[in-house]
Amino acid sequence: MNRRRGLYCLLTVAVLISCPPAPAQTSPSPVEITVGTHGKSISPDLFGIFFEDLSYAADGGLYAELVQNRSFEYTAADAKGWNSLTGWDLAVNERAIASIRVENTEPLNARNPDYAVLEVGKADGEVTLRNSGFDGMAIKAGEVYLLSLFARQLTGRPVPLLVRLEGKSGEVLASALLPAPTNMWQKYSASMTATKSDAEARLALVKTTPGKLGLDVVSLFPVHTFHGHPNGLRADLAESIAALKPKFIRFPGGCLVHGDGLPNMYKWKDTIGPIEQRAEQPNIWRYHQSLGLGYFEYFQLAEDIGATPVPIVAAGVSCQNSGASVTGKWGLGQQALPWPEMPSYVQDVLDLIEYANGPSSSTWGSKRAAAGHPEPFHLRYLGIGNEDAQSDAFRQRFKMIHDAVKAKHPEITIIGTVGPDPTGADYDAGWRFANQQHIEIVDEHSYRSADWFIENQDRYDNYKRNGTRAYIGEYAAWTNHISNLYCALAEAAYLTGLERNGDVVLMSSYAPLLSKIGHSSWEPDLIHFSNSEVFPSISYYVQQMFSTNSGDSYFDSLSSVPLRNEDLAFSAVRNSKSGNLILKLVNYGGRASHLRLKLPENYAKEASATMTLLTGDPMTVRNDGGSSILPVTSTVAVSPEFDYEAPAYSLTVFRLPPIALRPSSIISSP
Question: Closest Cα partner for 542 from 31, 189, 47?
Fold first, then answer.
């Protein structure tokens, strides 16, 4: 994720100027589009998703944990003004004496050494330690919630610990009594069923007797998570991701991977195992990573939604824009792991592959099996680096990692990187290096104006067909929140170009995926959300219409006039599993277009087809980032030659009945 905010602002202004909707008109004569009879094979993995923990996408978002700062590990390095008790407050009856502090002697786990000590000197009524979660806890009536915590009685008489869910006004929504803690760290759990709903609820731990009580990893999960997994994902958010039907999921970033300086580099081994054993750390986007959503959960999500996992590891260097936690501003510069540390780092990367694919009897495969997944995760892709400046230090370390992986795992396809922009010195140097080293795929990023995407529909038409392929790992049309539909359609036009060049562009993913309302680190985003609602953007529906209507062969087409002149874009693909021929038509202009579509000669008679249409007023805006313009699906009759009036500002997808192809019809493969 490129942080050049000044550039973002300039381009946002450019979009504001370049995106005004024109009045609706109708073109005077039909534009003829003839779909050819031969196709070329294209990548079946073309449309996927990219997850990065920014804008509270993980903690407070997709990760279903409701307690903020559950392990008391927050520090000022996470965010200005934060400390180890951020998220917690102590309510003391005026007749009681009590305090809360954080200690680290004899911790539950040395990797997360901090824990809270609740000390009650005089108890006359309740002493209550509360946590309001991430902007409150959205509790639903009838839902079951699992509370767990580690406790240790340090002094005083052990007594059962009362826990409850409270509404914003203090009303008790659910409660449970935990057993009296011992003088050793132990885990205690209880389930609670909420009697009422409250969008701003909180968790309360109540102590009524004198003494010191140690507390750590205080956790609250809804039992109903995505696919019912423990330590799982928020169901509605995960379901909105699954509905995209992505062919792959790239994780965990982004700039998050190489981190804010070398100490902050993302280490996958810190993210597996029981949550109390995971090493939490600051987030490069200026908040905190509990790492409860870790590598096991990412692989599990990919499997649950039928997507290929695409993990990204750092290339032995930190982000060139790192340094905010040290200097208060970006620009400390790229730092490289010392050479003596590189063999160990390379082994970590090899261990990751074993964790994903190794037998359950192997060292790291056994850890996957211990987490409940004895079968491999079928890893096929591995990304090395993200937006890295193409320095000698980067290239040397990338080559060391790349060569080690290919030597031991030739079956793994490696994805390289060509910097943060679709042009410039890093981009050019990255492509030269990729071709010299015969890297299979490189990751290009494009955050640009809507007009840039329209102008670059043919960007990949002239890429070499026999060299390194492209993964468009991060892209989005920067919007002005006035003409989001126009910008989403500009992305759609660009995607038709990716389909046309699906033999050289093997993968693509919009970014960012998730953004919590009130905590956005970046705009635009595919899915906005609050604690209780999900708001897919217009671009979400464009992505969904392409991904759920993807193909593995592309059919060339001819038009009676240049489509670009008519503000039109078109693609035709076939899905070999279903046999359907799928036509996508983008009208990003302000007038309706009269079209005459001529189908391949295989279609000899009238048939029934499915048509999905996304169109509306480009001036429609919602403050929550969601879309009031939704796709509408209907059944239509088509014939070997049929007319269609494409509305202004629209994306139309026709899914035609299965088409049988001669073996010679597919003439090339990616």
Answer: 47
The half-sphere exposure of 2 on its side-chain side, counting CA atoms within 13 A, is 24
User: How many Å apart are CA 301 and CA 315, to the nearest integer?
Assistant: 25
387 is catalytic: yes
Distance in angstroms (rounded) separating the CA atoms of residues 55 and 60:
9
d(CA 316, CA 615): 46
Q: For the domain with range 5-41+554-665, which CATH number is right: 3.40.920.10, 3.40.640.10, 2.60.40.1180, 2.60.40.2550?
A: 2.60.40.1180
Residues of the chain with pLDDT under 70: 1-28, 324-331, 480-482, 604, 659-670
pLDDT in tens, 646-667: 999 999 999 998 865 554 555 5
> 568: part of which helix (H) or strand (E)?
strand 568-574
Which residues have CB under 8 Å from 221's CB, separation 6+? 64, 65, 66, 145, 146, 230, 231, 232
For 434, half-sphere exposure in the C-beta direction (CA atoms, 13 angstrom radius) is: 28
Catalytic residue among 387, 474, 491, 499: 387
Angstrom distances, CA of residue 111 to CA of 213, 218, 270, 362, 490? 21, 16, 9, 24, 47
Query: What length does the chain have?
Result: 670
In Å, what is the CA distance from 116 to each residue of 77, 86, 89, 110, 192? 19, 12, 12, 15, 23
How open is the CA angle 522-524-528, to the nearest 5 degrees?
90
- For β-strands 527-529 and 88-92, DSSP reports them as unpaired
